[in-house]
């Protein structure tokens, strides 16, 4: 297992691209906490902090697919670096102006959110061009998902340390400067500068004209909702079981489970259609969420949370492979960005929905939300499986192909072709 990942990371540019992307995404991973801490330090209420954070989140949801489409059209350096700088300037403006005047603070959040560069989608578009074997691409998707779990765990800790060492404003400034440097490290690399999307049909729907992409978006909206609702339910559970670090135990166990599952999944070469494998992984994910409604003691609940997280990273990694197979030609970065955005929106919705569920039905109702969302994600895949059928996908593409190109397996107007980099 370690040998396989070591070989992957020793491939030229692989470690640089993975590390640079994670550093470049640090502002996005820490924005919610950093905005709340800074707003409170300026005398703002929690309601205002939540509103500013929501504006940032909505801006990100809007900007990611649009910037992803721009990357497909114009290349990575010409879009991602200016976007990273503009997003960072939005946060700098927020840190310097504070909450007065308030319209400027909201404008800064819009700028920072909308201009967040689609580094995650860009990295996944680069992997097939950097890694020589298709099984390594599959492993890279899994490693990427695992690294993301680590980043979202370490990022908030870094913000807290910066606040303790300097101030909330300094934390905003440092995190965003580091993020711009991460984006620069990625786009200055040869693979990023050389990458070009395949020619695309001019179509206003872009990646969304693919039925397979729409099915994935619908399913992973609910996967995100499940993850977001667990965070709120964990806090409510902690309130009934001694408070303190109990919620951290549950969420840490969830992250550790995802890390273990992702590492093990990516270390193996999988045969068969990834669309069918994704169905099984989402089914296992849904089954893992259901026992949380039992709300046993802290030790048993922590174990259940760890089990619930095991299939999250593998499901995400497999979904990335399926996205690559179903994205219309010339839209791969946009397609990845849509999946990332939808997952984030789902998490935000889950966070918002779990609160009323806990108030109305207690902790059991709070943990019923992720179980129901997991089942809904599975039902979307089952009900729409004909749009993801591997045989139908293959039938729409002629044989032969280019190892460096994207797939178009969806009956789009332009002819599709088979790519050699599939995992």
From TrEMBL:
**Which regions span the lipid bilayer?**
17-39, 45-67, 79-99, 169-188, 213-237, 249-266, 278-297, 303-323, 335-354, 360-384
InterPro entries documented for this protein: MFS, MFS_trans_sf
For the region Disordered, give the residue spans. Answer: 395-423
The GO molecular function terms of this record are: transmembrane transporter activity
Cite the Gene3D superfamilies for this sequence: MFS general substrate transporter like domains (1.20.1250.20)
Q: Write the record's keywords in alphabetical order, separated by commas.
A: Membrane, Transmembrane, Transmembrane helix
**Name assigned to this protein:** MFS transporter
């Amino acid at each position: 297992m370690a040998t396989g990942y070591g070989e992957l990371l020793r491939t030229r540019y692989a470690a640089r691209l993975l590390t640079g992307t994670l550093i470049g995404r640090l502002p996005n991973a820490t924005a919610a906490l950093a905005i709340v801490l800074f707003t409170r330090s300026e005398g703002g209420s929690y309601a205002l902090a939540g509103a500013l954070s929501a504006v940032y989140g909505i801006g990100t949801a809007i900007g990611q697919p649009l910037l992803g489409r721009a990357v497909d059209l114009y290349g990575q350096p010409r879009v991602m670096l200016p976007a990273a700088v503009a997003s960072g300037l939005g946060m700098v403006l927020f840190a310097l102006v504070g909450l007065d005047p308030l319209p400027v603070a909201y404008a800064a959040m819009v700028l920072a959110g909308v201009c967040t560069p689609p580094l995650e989608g860009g990295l996944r578009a680069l992997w097939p061009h950097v890694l020589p074997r298709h099984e390594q691409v599959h492993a890279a998707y899994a490693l990427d998902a695992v690294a993301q779990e680590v980043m979202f765990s370490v990022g908030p800790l870094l913000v807290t340390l910066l606040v303790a060492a300097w101030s909330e404003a300094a934390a905003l400034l440092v995190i965003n400067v580091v993020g711009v440097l991460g984006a620069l490290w990625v786009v200055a690399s040869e693979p990023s500068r050389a990458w070009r999307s395949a020619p695309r049909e001019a179509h206003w729907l872009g990646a969304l004209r693919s039925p397979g992409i729409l099915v994935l978006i619908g399913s992973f909206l609910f996967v995100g909702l499940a993850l977001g609702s667990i965070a709120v339910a964990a806090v409510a559970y902690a309130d009934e079981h001694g408070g303190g670090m109990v919620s951290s135990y549950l969420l840490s166990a969830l992250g550790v489970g995802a890390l273990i599952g992702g590492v093990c999944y990516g270390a193996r070469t999988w045969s068969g259609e990834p669309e069918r494998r994704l169905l099984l992984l989402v089914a296992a994910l849904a089954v893992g969420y259901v026992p949380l409604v039992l709300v046993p003691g802290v030790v048993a609940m922590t174990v259940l949370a760890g089990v619930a997280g095991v299939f999250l990273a593998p499901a995400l990694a497999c979904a990335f492979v399926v996205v690559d197979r179903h994205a219309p030609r010339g839209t791969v970065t946009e397609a990845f960005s849509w999946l990332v955005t939808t997952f984030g929106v789902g998490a935000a919705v889950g966070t918002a929905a779990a609160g009323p569920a806990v108030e109305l039905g207690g902790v059991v109702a709070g943990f019923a939300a992720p179980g129901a969302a997991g089942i809904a994600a599975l039902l979307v895949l089952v009900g729409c499986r004909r749009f993801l059928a591997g045989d139908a996908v293959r039938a729409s593409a002629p044989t032969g192909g280019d190892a460096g190109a994207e797939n178009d397996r969806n009956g789009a107007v332009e002819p599709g072709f088979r790519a050699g980099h599939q995992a």
